[in-house]
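REQUEST ID: PR-0412
SUBMITTED BY: lab tech R.K.
PRIORITY: routine
TASK: structure prediction, single protein chain
INPUT:
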Amino acid sequence: MRKHNGYLFYRRLRDHLGPQPIFGQMSHKTYEEADCSRFRYKVFLRSNYYKDTMGERFAKSGIISKPSEWEHPARGSYNEEMLNGICEHAN
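STATUS: complete
OUTPUT:
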């Protein structure tokens, strides 16, 4: 994780319950940006796709041409819990 101009940049690993349709990946890592002052995040720049869970057996890398829009996590969601942890860790 790193800070730049008041934002946090971090990598996030996601596992899937089954192979995904695009590359058949079982997990992927994304590079994301958090704005803790407004409690929001967005997917940013790059995704790496893996054949197995937990980021094992690299399959493909993709560059995101345009970062996603800012997202506010839903109350009680995993994304809310994740963003809380990232923002607390940064302080």
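NOTES: The chain has a mean pLDDT of 87.
REVIEWED BY: pending
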